[in-house]
Write a structure and sequence with these properties.
2 helices, two-stranded antiparallel sheet, about 80 residues, alpha+beta, Pemi-like Protein 1, Chain: D, about 15% strand
Length: about 80
Amino acid sequence: MTLTLPISKRGGLTLPPALRRKLGLDGVDSPLVIVEERDGGIFIQPAAAVPVRDLPRETLARWISRDEAEMTAFARKSKAKPGK
């Protein structure tokens, strides 16, 4: 399914009711997550809540390490930009 949706001045999108039903996003608290940015576009999907206690420690350690590395790289890029 391909849709063209307008973006509000504040950056909001309104998903059509049929798409919300198809994705199970009928509730008020139905968050979405941006999974990937690629080729000038984004891929979003419904967010899934997973209790942290159900995740292996190795997975959590890998996620934390990756997040810290990405934040360090972001901070370096921010400092390197002129006028910042």
